[in-house]
Amino acid sequence: MAGAVDLSGLKQRAQQPPPGGGAAPSGGIEVTEANFEAEVLVRSGQVPVVVVLWSPRSDASVQLAEALGVLAADDAGKWSLATVNVDVVPRVAQMFGIEAVPTVVALAGGQPLASFQGPQPPEQLRRWVDSLLSATAGKLSGSADSGDEPAADPALAHARDLLEAGDFAAAAAAYQAILDADPGHVEAKGALRQMTFLERATSHSPDVVAAADAAPDDIDAAFAAADVQILNQDVIPAFDRLIALVRKTSDDDRTKVRTRLIELFELFDPADPDVITGRRNLANALY
Predict the structure, then answer these.
(1) pTM of the entire predicted model
(2) Which of 43, 88, 115, 192 has its CA 20 to 30 A from that of 253?
């Protein structure tokens, strides 16, 4: 969900240690799904952000990240270095559509500006960084260490505080007020959507999955089971359960199942590979 709110980790899986077991390169900010927006997208509105997509299985990618870390330290806040371990946070890596490591992507104002793949000699890296700084000079808001942050929206901050305090009813009302004033507000939409889901999913009995398995044609039982599975981060089986129902139903029942499935897709980032697979399987089931 866009914004600073993370409701029960619905978009995250348990992360395993990197297969190679190698140490992270020194220098730069380690990017996760939780801090991607703040450390990459938001920060790139202040200074250029250079993202290194690396793997402990690739010595060349570790060396490249460390070389860029030296340059970042030399430049003292003129740009920000961020590192993405593709083995630990594959979803972030997929956002960049990378084909190999190491890959380096520079962002400014939230948009990709330049990129390259493979190791580079230090002098070439220096020229690349200098050209990046030249291209963005005077176009961004300030240095990464200036302490300047975008002015906080007090209504949004209040809604987040209520949500973090667990006062879902008050948080929902606060987010709804934001949405009433700004119908296109992304975070308010996402927060309300996920709170509605959490309220519904946590009301189900834990045995609903077994009950749905025993009655595969029961739509309401399938809906409840899919909610519980997603709450437990068992996402693909939840999607598959409803897609199987789409194949077996018709007319109003099929529309009902398809609508619920799309609502579940919308709990996640559209670039989530599970959602991409689910949408493709839904399209195949429909046509």
Answers:
(1) 0.49
(2) 192
